[in-house]
Amino acid sequence: MDIRYASHPNEVKAFDTSRLREEFLIEQLFVPDRLVLSYSHVDRFIIGGVVPVNEAVKLEADAAAIGAATFLERREIGIINVGGTGTVTVDGETFVMANKDCLYVGRGAKDVAFASEDAGQPAQYYLNSTPAHQTYPTVKAAISEASPNHLGSQTNSNERTIYRYIHTGGIQSCQLVMGMTLLKSGSMWNTMPCHTHKRRSEVYFYFDMPEDGVVFHLMGEPDETRHVVVRNEQAVISPSWSIHSGVGTSSYTFIWGMAGENQIFEDMDAVKMTDLK
Length: 277
Prior knowledge:
Elements: E1 2-4, H1 9-12, H2 17-24, E2 25-26, E3 35-40, E4 45-50, E5 57-58, H3 63-66, E6 75-81, E7 86-90, E8 93-97, E9 102-105, E10 112-116, E11 125-131, E12 139-141, E13 147-151, E14 160-166, E15 177-183, E16 189-190, E17 195-196, E18 200-207, E19 215-221, E20 224-230, E21 234-238, E22 245-248, E23 253-260, E24 269-270
Parallel strand pairs: 1-3
Antiparallel strand pairs: 2-21, 3-4, 4-11, 5-10, 6-9, 6-11, 7-8, 7-10, 9-12, 13-14, 14-15, 15-23, 16-22, 17-24, 18-21, 18-23, 19-20, 19-22
């Protein structure tokens, strides 16, 4: 398991491009028939990916990293499929996962296995996991069952729809909040005007991008911004003190996951455009 440590904002001011990418960017999440995980000391977030091609892949614990016999002994997990149709089996119960379906698995589940329906078009499961203090039921939701919120305008190149899967009004969890934002064709900006939320960290996973497409992900304190160039199917860790916004060379989709003090989606600290530097 890849380990990422927390960074103080004063320290980040001195990071060059390589160090920024080393600390905050997860460049490879999907390797055939392997479970790929990154453990962040920011809110004890685990970010991962699974592409089962030739065989099912189990969700297994790295005992040295999390100090538990099973992955979900003291954790919960959100799973979103960004590939072909597949299945996730949780303690003997199988859930069919189409593209953009979400599955929440609560604390205490022992056996979780990922599979694909067609090896030629394998499922790709993106994972967010956080510590959990109690058990909530395992629940699946298709994108049609998520809570949509239409934002932005064509004038500002940011027409988009936010779909909330795991949140206070949807799938219940201990602290994990998770959803997906789809930008309309011709729109490139996300989350601008930007914000921070000092009570929560966030992770962005960008996908549905062309091979030569990039997103310039903006991070840092509002008056000390930095950027990280992100490519298709890569993720960026955003500490609570950092803005998290971006503009792409074309439209794209991203999954956001949050963890921290509370689950209130609207609990954020808005940043005036005039205060950005």
